[in-house]
């Protein structure tokens, strides 16, 4: 038997084992193409990880089914002055180990989330002071007004200071860590579920928290998560009833699932933008046959790559119509002036001419980093890009890896080890500032968290100045115009290649009622399951 068949058989056997272990009607079995790498909530800024950990950890705020910000560990808040936000904490809340939740935990979490090793540093600017007023009141003192301060706090999860100190996890666990920390393998949150057991890459079991402070809408008592990377095995498990929910459903299997008697596909628009980026910072690319210089520092090369990609072909052939080509690095639902922008046309002849003008008439060679278990058809998209760029003489060496290895390589703690890459981004604030600051802002590892997710190091100081104005502008029309000006600069620079917003596709048993959110966070505390 080949290695590939052995792995497939092992995965299938593990999946089939789900069916024979006893489970009540209030046990939900969930399979995702990716794994839950770490239980440390500051290790990886990634939506699937946020969704898993959102069952056990909580932030000061949360989002409801319509993505509206609602109170969570903070009961209420106000701004007594423009640069001071005061949060009144919920009393009587206990962490899963019985420790009381207090202001000390908020101050500790504010420090920890901004420490080296955290992939969540942009949740709270380094110059924000967090002050304990009393055990249940915390002030956030800002250097300047910020009307969207808490827009991304629903996935900034609060940790237990005492537990972290006792278990030597005061510092975050970096995504590139080779040895797991205590926080990587254990949790101690305040949420509606407790993790009973966690076997990375195998299975994670969630149990309902009997001492949860809030009211749970769903009826689940247990969630069993099993990563199943094989599309065929994952779909087979859903159709046979061995699992109740899978994410995602491969595009080619949607009609098959919808026509089955016991399952259906929940489809809807997603706010994540899939895009391609370039290393524009190094003087010489890490992974290329061009030595002594970096072709991507030339805007003509970036423009050539952009115009060589046939986005409509990707939509029809790879995504089978379940994508919306994008001219911007943000979904149109999240920016009022998005209709002002039109995507440049596919022009392979023009792309070839641009490469020649830039001094690469025969193209060049470069490695492309791509996850293969993160987005809908991510590896297939990258394969299509490889073929399209080959037409203009560019040889792409595709390195497609599971997201754990991919992120460990390309993110900050991995040293941004990439020359050319595919990534997806849902702005945590549901606002353009997050894209302008995190993805497109000049990367400054020493002084600020700006550009933390800017893997390629695109930098334009005029762009950053507009971003700073966007942050403090409270007039909506003026703010939108500033955002528009910033996007125009990014487009003129050919800073990135936005591809599309993909469609959500969750496979769900007809015994399960599961609300779907456009941010792709699968939240099971709303789910109900019947006999």
Automatic annotation (TrEMBL):
Transmembrane segments: none annotated. Its main location: periplasm. It comes from the Bacteria. The keyword Secreted does not apply. GO terms for molecular function: peptide transmembrane transporter activity. The keyword Signal applies. Keywords: Signal, Transport. One of its GO terms (biological process) is peptide transport. InterPro entries: Peptide/Ni-bd, SBP_5, SBP_5_dom. Residues 1-25 form the signal peptide. Belongs to the bacterial solute-binding protein 5 family. This is Peptide/nickel transport system substrate-binding protein.
